[in-house]
Amino acid sequence: MTTAALFTGTNLTKHFEVKRSGGEKRGKALVRAVDGVDISIRPGECLALVGESGCGKSALAALVSHLDTATAGEVRFNGEPVAKDRRSRLQFRRDVQIVLQDPFASLNPRMTIEAILREPFEIHSDLLPREAWRARAIELLELVGLGAEQLERYPHEFSGGQRQRISIARALAVEPRVLVLDEPLSALDVSVQAQIVTLLKDLQARLGLAYLFISHDLAVVRSMADRVAVMYLGRIVEEGPTERVYSAPTHPYTRALLSSSPIPDPDRRENSGRILLTGEVPSPIDPPSGCPFRTRCWRAVEACAQNRPQLEVSGLRDPAHRVACFRADERDEVHPK
After folding, report:
1. 312 and 322 Cβ atoms separated by less than 8 Å
2. Are 15 and 31 in contact (CB under 8 A)?
């Protein structure tokens, strides 16, 4: 029996209005940062979101955590739509917390660590009595591998990895059920990244958390995620169980993305079949008609330019594996060298 989704986003869309400068196209235009995305996360699951820079991952993270208002679409938690009144928003933010990419920028440099960890209790005043705030702050620090002696220090006195641990502790203060992790490793050294990954896995197992994990590191995604969604130009083009997507990628963009991962073994590297895409990523101001990837795709046909492929199951693939490609069921083709 399939577990019902804890969190869903339907047709999530975010368009930004910008001014064009010069030329015949002078005037206002829309940047289609997120363009009709459906997303769901089950209790205790880790869904990873991958894609190249500028594809809309962080914009989607802001929408699902209600840091930004969607142009269109709906977010539901436990099957109920998130209302716009203050009380409903506060409850939603208790259930869904976000950890941002740069821990130095996301922590107030004028506040001590104790003040940073007490702030969620000031906002969500019904969580704990004031006299219990300090003890809870210590408990949160210990949960992420730090200690009570850190309470009176300021963010600049910590390393990048320690600051990210404090950001995670702050997010856990209100006992959320979902953590949105927006590139939480990219500002850290490689050795520190491994420590934070271990911490996140441990917290998920101990607390039963669900994660939306956004990352460029495909190796980390493979070790962390239960499912992976591949994003391109504001849309999800492939989604499915992590091992299924990694072992049998179907969308041409997914194949190109996975082939770009570095391979340490020189013998395997020569026969890896790396795919080098031609052309530039189209502008989200003026995306291609039909399939957003068609201008760089070696499999594109006329139908790809005329209609937008939907994310769906087709052929003999796993029912949980969906792809937005008109040619998904056709015989595989080797990318031209």
Report:
1. yes
2. yes
Separation of CA 235 from chain center: 13
Question: Helix or strand or coil: residue 35?
Answer: strand
Taking CA 283 as the corner, what is the angle to CA 14 and CA 60, rounded to the nearest 5 degrees? Answer: 25
Which of the 8 DSSP states describes residue 280? P
Residues 241-253 have pLDDT tens digits of 999 999 999 999 9
Residues 211, 171: contact at Cβ < 8 Å? no
What is the rounded end-to-end Cα distance, in angstroms, of the chain? 45
Q: pTM value? A: 0.91
What b/e readout covers 130-146, taking b as 16+ CB neighbours within 10 angstroms? eeebeebbbebbebbbb
The number of beta carbons lying within 10 Å of the beta carbon of residue 206 is 9
Per the prediction, the chain carries an average pLDDT of: 89
Strand partners, 181: 99, 213
* φ, ψ at 322 (rounded to 5°): -120, 150
Question: Domains of the chain by range and CATH?
Answer: 7-225 (3.40.50.300), 251-337 (no CATH)
Q: What band does 1 get if pLDDT is binned at 50, 70 and 90? A: very low
CA neighbor of 210 nearest in space, from 76, 62, 43? 43
Give percent above pLDDT 70 in the chain: 91
Distance CA 258, CA 223 (A): 14
Q: For residue 309, give the amino acid letter.
A: P
